[in-house]
Write a structure and sequence with these properties.
The complex is a heterodimer. By secondary structure, chain A is mostly helical. Chain A is built from 4 helices and no strands. The longest helix of chain B has 22 residues. The chains are: A mainly alpha, B mainly alpha. The interface between A and B is large, with 57 and 44 residues.
Chain lengths: 146, 175
């Protein structure tokens, strides 16, 4: 896939970082404001998709990028599962037990393990959306090349 | 509010119908997204900002991906006109529409009135969630604490979908 014009490239350059930061904000504040791991993860994936669409697929080496996103995705779901399993070791020994101290309601560091779940689920969602997009792009390029 | 919801639902149905009968693939994809964005407005009218954020973001990304995939592929779809003399098919379709309508009416008759129903379990969640989970956002508290299994299932479904997409779309093996 070819890149777009200079105007689109420049605008993307200015906007993509802000979109990425907004996704991180939505993920980290998931236990305080509307949003959370799923919505923020998709926004983070959107910033990468914006870059790839504007600059064309030669800009980043896509197959290497795809390997990285697959690893990130599997790591995210594995870590979330590990935190859930850790609840069976500590405290009252229940799967998905909230084993960290809860803190004051409404502060950024509070709610025990819920922010950690948000971060890892956001990581997993962002990487999986990006992986599907990259798989479709690589498939299209391989088809046109043959 | 019910009137506004009905208008948006009718628009969504029209968009879905147009997506089936559109001449080329690109306009079908774009008219299909009317359904998603209509759902966003429905969620906002029903005061569910969490769902609205997820829906609008997923809808936008899906639309972008679908347009990027569809854009250079074949536009024209073979379109066959339905035969007007096929009485059996038309009669079966009408019978199905009428019977499903009456079954749905009978099934929804026993529900609570719109916007008033609240189950015992939901009341329990709303009262105790902030103290029990420490999360100011009630929805996050429910999906990651009370209903943790559900969220784990959703995340696993996403991983499985990616595995399936990679398996189908890979022509040459990775070097």
């Amino acid at each position: 896939m070819k890149g777009m014009t200079l105007i689109v490239k420049k605008t993307t350059q200015l906007i993509a970082g802000i979109v990425f930061l907004y996704g991180i904000y939505i993920i980290v504040h998931g236990h305080l404001t509307p949003g959370g791991g799923f919505a923020g993860g998709v926004i983070v994936a959107g910033s990468f998709i914006l870059l790839i669409l504007a600059y064309g697929s030669d800009f980043m080496h896509l197959t290497r990028e795809e390997t990285g996103s697959t690893i990130t995705e599997n790591l995210g779901i594995l870590l979330a599962l590990m935190i859930a399993l850790a609840g069976m070791i500590t405290g009252i020994k229940v799967f998905f037990f909230n084993w960290l101290p809860h803190g004051t309601v409404g502060e950024l560091v509070s709610a025990g393990v819920i922010p950690l779940y948000n971060i890892f689920v956001g990581m997993e969602v962002a990487a999986s959306i990006l992986t599907i997009f990259l798989a479709l792009l690589i498939f299209k390029e391989e088809v046109t090349k043959w | 509010m019910e009137l506004a919801l009905s208008v948006i639902l009718v628009l969504m149905i029209l968009g879905a119908l147009f997506a089936i009968h559109a001449k080329d693939l690109l306009s079908a994809v774009i008219s299909c997204s009317i359904v998603g964005y209509g759902l966003v407005i429905c969620f906002l009218l029903l005061r569910a900002p969490d769902l609205a954020i997820v829906q609008i973001v997923v809808e936008t990304i899906t639309l972008v991906i679908m347009v990027a995939v569809v854009l250079d592929s074949t536009r024209q779809e073979p379109f066959t006109k339905p035969d007007p003399h096929d009485y059996v098919a038309i009669a079966t379709a009408l019978l199905l529409i009428v019977s499903v309508f009456f079954l749905l009416k009978a099934a929804t008759g026993s529900l609570d009135p719109f916007g008033e129903g609240s189950m015992r379990m939901a009341k329990h969640y709303i009262e105790g969630a902030a103290d029990k989970t420490g999360s100011a956002n009630l929805v996050t508290g429910v999906i990651f604490d009370f209903r943790g299994y559900d969220t784990l299932g959703e995340a696993t479904v996403l991983v499985t979908a990616v595995l399936g997409a990679l398996t189908i779309l890979r022509i040459r093996g990775k070097k």
